[in-house]
């Protein structure tokens, strides 16, 4: 496995691979790899000849500088994981390699980046979109892999690639959960056992929505109320949003119709978690 922080080196490797007719896959991450990230790398390994993992903690997508400073950076563990998973190249650039001194260009995807997560974390998707465009332009993979866990993020990235004519396929990989349903996240290590139990309410509420739809409920406003009531019944939880949205536009219809996704963001004693569940309705099944 090779590691580099050099744009020229990653480009040289990708150019050679492309000349050899190889398919190049890229898995962008902020490191602190867990089984969720690993599943993306495994899928990339299955589908591509060359797998590149990027490790870059992107300051511009954090709303809170303390959160950014305390973000875990277990580099040696991450490199060992990548080696075990058969990654070909790890790209671990310095901040100044990605964010060139004096560079002020940003990417703004519009409304899709302003609702839900974007509403609660202003500027977050501008930060995500800008760094993803930079990383994709540096690596120039055939395909990039993102997690369903960050539903709105993968949607934003799909849109920006389409809108900006970026020649890259986007593959979205399933959310990996612990046995109790909690979606894996780098932030889970911060939870005490009691907070962890409280955190399982997020997935439980998402499953409850699917259950209600299976039982014939069509009133989505009622279901949104139910999500909020169920979540706030757990005293440790403060809800940012509990939404049922169109799976493509993230608009929030009142009644069932088209592909839908349920999304939640909540603080468990101050630790912010997000989760989502694409829904099956009579119309979509
Ligand atoms: P991050 O390092 O948090 O930026 O995440 C890197 C990639 O891993 C993103 O595409 C995430 O959506 C994905 N990811 C994070 N957690 C999970 C999970 N539990 N299941 C699947 N993908 C995940």
Would you write up a description of this structure?
- The chain is of the alpha/beta class and 285 residues long.
- 40% of the residues lie in helices and 20% in strands.
- It has helices at 7-19, 35-47, 65-69, 75-84, 95-98, 117-120, 124-139, 151-163, 193-214, 220-232, and strands spanning 2-4, 24-29, 50-55, 89-91, 143-147, 169-173, 237-246, 260-268, 271-279.
- The strands form 2 sheets. It has a 6-stranded parallel β-sheet, sandwiched between helices. Strands 7-8-9 form a 3-stranded antiparallel β-sheet, covered by helices on one side.
- The protein starts with a strand and ends in a 6-residue tail after the last strand.
- Adenosine monophosphate is lined by residues 29-30, 36-37, 39-40, 146-147, 149-150, 173, 175-176, 183-186.
Salient structural properties:
single chain, 285 residues, alpha/beta, three-stranded antiparallel beta sheet, 10 helices, 9 strands, binds adenosine monophosphate
Layout of SSEs?
Layout: E1 2-4, H1 7-19, E2 24-29, H2 35-47, E3 50-55, H3 65-69, H4 75-84, E4 89-91, H5 95-98, H6 117-120, H7 124-139, E5 143-147, H8 151-163, E6 169-173, H9 193-214, H10 220-232, E7 237-246, E8 260-268, E9 271-279
Helix pairs in contact: 7-8, 9-10
Adenosine monophosphate binds at residues 29-30, 36-37, 39-40, 146-147, 149-150, 173, 175-176, 183-186.
Task: Kindly summarize this structure in a few lines.
The chain has 285 residues and is of the alpha/beta class.
Helix content: 25-40%
Tally of individual helices: 10
Radius of gyration over C-alpha positions, nearest whole angstrom: 19 Å
Poorly predicted parts: none
- Main sheet makeup: 6 strands, parallel
**Neighbour order of strands in the largest sheet:** 1-4-3-2-5-6
How much of the residues is beta strand, in percent?
15-25%
- What is the distance, rounded to the nearest whole angstrom, between the alpha carbons of the first and last residues? 43 Å
Strand/helix succession? EHEHEHHEHHHEHEHHEEE
């Amino acid at each position: 496995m090779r590691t580099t922080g050099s744009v020229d080196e990653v480009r040289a490797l990708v150019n050679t691979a492309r000349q050899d007719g190889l398919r190049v896959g890229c898995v962008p991450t902020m490191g602190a790899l867990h089984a969720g990230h690993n599943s993306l790398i495994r899928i990339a390994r299955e589908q591509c000849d060359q797998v590149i993992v990027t490790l870059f903690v992107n300051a511009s997508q954090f709303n809170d500088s303390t959160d950014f400073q305390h973000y875990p950076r277990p580099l040696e563990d991450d490199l060992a994981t990548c080696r075990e998973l058969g990654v070909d190249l790890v790209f671990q650039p310095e901040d100044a390699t990605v964010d060139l001194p004096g560079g002020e260009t940003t990417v703004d995807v519009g409304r899709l980046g302003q609702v839900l997560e974007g509403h609660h974390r202003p500027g977050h998707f501008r930060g995500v979109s800008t760094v993803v465009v930079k990383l994709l332009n540096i690596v120039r993979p055939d395909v990039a892999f993102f997690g369903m866990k960050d539903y709105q993020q993968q949607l934003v990235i799909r849109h920006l690639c389409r809108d900006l004519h970026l020649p890259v396929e986007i593959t979205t990989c399933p959310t990996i959960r612990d046995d109790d349903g909690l979606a894996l996240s780098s932030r889970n290590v911060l939870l005490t056992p009691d907070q962890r139990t409280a955190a399982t309410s997020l997935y439980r509420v998402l499953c409850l929505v699917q259950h209600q739809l299976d039982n014939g409920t069509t009133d989505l406003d009622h279901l949104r109320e139910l999500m909020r009531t169920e979540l706030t019944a757990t005293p440790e939880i403060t809800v940012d949003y509990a939404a049922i949205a169109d799976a493509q536009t993230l608009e929030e219809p009142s009644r069932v119709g088209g592909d839908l996704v349920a999304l939640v963001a909540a603080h468990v004693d101050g630790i912010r978690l997000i989760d989502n569940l694409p829904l099956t309705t009579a119309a979509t099944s």
